[in-house]
């Protein structure tokens, strides 16, 4: 595991009487993409706004590169790049003017601005648009300019709030590729509602529900969060359903079509091997066996407490 760039300790916030987030703790390391998931009103924006220094928390601490954000916000914010849901673009500026202005707002030393702006233009593949007014760019390129302003000061930590919202499928692919490139040497925190996006670009997941952190782990751990409870087997020379049911402590066998069965089971790591062995031993002519995993939507629903059980 790499060094920690962001450390969130016992973070709680209430807007009036009700707590929006409560006792959130996590760390983000120096590169890769962390997806921040949660239903509407779960507390994602509250958490992101606090981490970016836009909102002051009621309780707890946030450290950016070891600096306490509340005690030393100007210094800590030098390490943060933020693309809010609505990119803060000045439509009547050219791309270059806008990026220079962004570098100035980030308190970059004047002698470093030229190089920084050129690097951001190159990284986001918008060099050829440097003199174009932002209002004359397509939505996908405006989004690239939004990302360029978030990285122009080369921050260690980049926060992107729904960066592919409203883009067409080709632009979405381009922006996802760009995010992956940025994540090679930056820590990226990405908020999105699109689970396929999480699967496509995130290395880690943090999920907030009702103001609490309900999941924190790798994409693979998220994928395996719910153990499989069924598999489908196809046999060319299938025995009677009751024979399949008697093989082990199954929950049930469902006939799906000729020679195709869905077998439900409770935790049993060796169950598929038992069926493969029995197929060979009894010459059942095994054609296919597929373990049925939960979809990301189902895992999301379980973690957000919308379903207690998939069956
Ligand atoms: N300015 C505010 N004043 C009062 N309550 C607020 C304010 N902003 C958010 N809340 C409440 O705090 C809770 C968390 O909201 P938040 O916007 O952080 O959720 P979210 O996960 O970002 O939701 P969404 O995905 O819909 O943007 C919700 O109950 C919301 O109604």
UniProtKB/TrEMBL annotation:
What keywords were assigned to this record?
A: ATP-binding, Nodulation, Nucleotide-binding, Transport
Q: Does the keyword DNA repair apply?
A: no
Task: Note the SUPFAM superfamilies from the entry.
Answer: P-loop containing nucleoside triphosphate hydrolases
- Keyword presence, Transport: yes
Q: For the ABC transporter domain, which residue ranges apply?
A: 6-235
Under the GO molecular function aspect, what terms does this record hold? ATP binding; ATP hydrolysis activity
Q: Name one Pfam family in it.
A: ABC_tran
What Gene3D superfamilies does the database record attribute to this sequence?
P-loop containing nucleotide triphosphate hydrolases
Q: Its family?
A: Belongs to the ABC transporter superfamily.
Q: What is this protein called?
A: ABC transporter ATP-binding protein
